[in-house]
User: What shape does this take?
Amino acid sequence: MQKPTVRTGIIGARFAASFHIESVHRVYGVNTEVVGVHSKTPESLNAYADKHGIKAFDDLDALLDQIDVLHVCVPPALHEEMAIRALERGVYPIVEKPLTGRFGDGSEDYDGRNDSMEVARDGALDSIKRMLEAEAASEARILYAENWVYAPTIQKEREVLEKTKGQVLWMHGEEAHSGSHSPFYGYWKHGGGGAMIGKGCHPLTAALYLKKVEGRARFGKPIRPASVTARIHALTQLPNFVDDGHIRADYFDIEDFGMTHVTFEDGTIATVFASEIVLGGVHNWLEVCATNHRTICNLNPSNQMQTYNPVESQFDDIYVVEKIGTKQGWAMTAPDEDFSHGFPQEMEAFYRTVGHGDDVESDSQLASDTIATIYSGYVSAANGGAEEPVTLL
Ligand SMILES: NC(=O)c1ccc[n+]([C@@H]2O[C@H](COP(=O)([O-])OP(=O)(O)OC[C@H]3O[C@@H](n4cnc5c(N)ncnc54)[C@H](O)[C@@H]3O)[C@@H](O)[C@H]2O)c1
Assistant: This one.
């Protein structure tokens, strides 16, 4: 059978845009044609276009006219606008995490620490509704780029749950490292919050996904979140914080630690930690405690490969593992980090949806449940951790 050709555009030209295009090149189920890229800053736009041998577009509409799929790799505050612009033209948006949120009141000097979290939650829910309405009116679908859903460890656990029909009683997990590289990160007006949304969304979506899988396998419908209790802290902003130079500490109005405890519709639970204060490279894992098995998913680090390097400079041009502070000594070196994170697998799945009509595992409902849970979490945290219901859209 002739493979269909899917035409691609990218918006954003830095970190996420880089790993997206690398993964597009690994797609094999369809032919891909990368038409071009659009971004705000001419320098990064042209550098990215030159590096990847693609056309730089200074007008997003001109790019949208020529593509089937738009990779939305811009800061979270722009996801809604870009995704809706794509959907209105029948273009599938591959939207980076978090799907959307509430990004302040429009003022330049917005400070999320002084705002009402009920207002923030209502704003985030309104944003999701607008995106879901645009999706319902479009021929295209939202493809939610939560790579944890497609990580090989999480997909193996999907198989275990589907075949054993186990009941998951508790999941606990974490995404953490020593601080985001993005200059936009640290401002609520760009990120819609801090660690609890920016990092916590990853293990949270994986946990929500596995309860969806369990429900599908046991009763033919997902088990969704019902309520949440959460705590957040700004540890690097404490007056007594000791800045030893290893942890990024210049955040403006966001938390650098979040704990989200979810109760599902069936009374079972998941606890997710997210932070910007953990040294030694990324710490991304999820443990599943089920009635008939137990699984530990180590996304990164994993001990698939370990290297011992006695001299730092020997590894100057060798990539070891994300956010590692030093390459000297022992390291949990990642032989193919993109693969362990699920990046090529998510693109393969999304392009099969566009090219062949396959179902979407990481869809707008999963994304919506994640954002609704996190923003109810912010309401809970503002109330000292009191339990809050999750509004399901
Ligand atoms: N899945 C993951 O593991 C992962 C990792 C990092 C980032 N992300 C997500 O990817 C998205 C982008 O993050 P990043 O780290 O690449 O940020 P970044 O700061 O490295 O890059 C953002 C890009 O967006 C462009 N941009 C900003 N405003 C724009 C506008 N109005 N119009 C067009 N372009 C604009 C910037 O010029 C830049 O090229 C975020 O949603 C982030 O949460 C996901």
